[in-house]
């Protein structure tokens, strides 16, 4: 009868540590998904629209070089995400208009 080779101690510990790490990551992912789901259910459409529009107007002002207000502070991750999306859309709308109009000065060559 053949004997089963023993698994080294460091391998046993490595398997246990890996299992714990995978379990913790899985718990964190599930917690994040549930939080996103709950924020989506508890936040009204009107409030979501207000944060997006606020971010859009702040993005427009910043792209034009005007002074802007600071980002509104909220614990709601959905509202933060919508504000940042609006900000980026506002910024991009001005930047794309600048590209269509053309650069103000010709590009410099390396010579």
Notes on the structure:
By secondary structure, this protein is mainly alpha-helical. It is 70% helix and 0% strand. It is built from three helices and no strands. Helix 2 packs parallel to helix 3. The longest helix has 34 residues. It starts with 8 loop residues before the first helix and ends in a 10-residue tail after the last helix. 11% of the residues are buried.
List strands and helices in order, with pairings.
Blueprint: H1 9-42, H2 45-63, H3 77-101
Helix pairs in contact: 2-3
How much β-strand is present in the residues? under 5%
Distance between the termini: 81 Å
Q: What's the helix count?
A: 3
What are the low-pLDDT stretches, counting only 5+ consecutive residues below 50? none
Helix content class: over 70%
Name the helix and strand elements from N-terminus to C-terminus, one letter apiece: HHH
- The shape is elongated
Mean pLDDT: 84
How many whole angstroms does the radius of gyration measure? 26 Å
Largest sheet: none
User: Helix/strand-derived class?
Assistant: mainly alpha
In short:
With 111 residues, the chain is mainly α. It has helices at residues 9-42, 45-63, 77-101.
List keywords for this structure.
mainly alpha, 111 residues
């Amino acid at each position: 009868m053949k004997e089963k080779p023993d698994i080294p101690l460091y391998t046993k510990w490595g398997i246990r540590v890996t299992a714990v790490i995978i379990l913790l990551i899985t718990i964190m992912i599930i917690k994040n998904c549930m939080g996103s789901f709950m924020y989506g259910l508890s936040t009204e459409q009107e409030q979501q629209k207000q944060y997006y529009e606020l971010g859009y107007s702040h993005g427009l002002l910043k792209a034009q070089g005007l002074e802007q207000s600071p980002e509104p502070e909220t614990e709601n991750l959905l509202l933060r995400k919508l504000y940042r999306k609006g900000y980026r859309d506002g910024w991009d709308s001005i930047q794309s208009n600048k590209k269509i109009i053309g650069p103000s000065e010709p590009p410099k060559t390396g010579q």
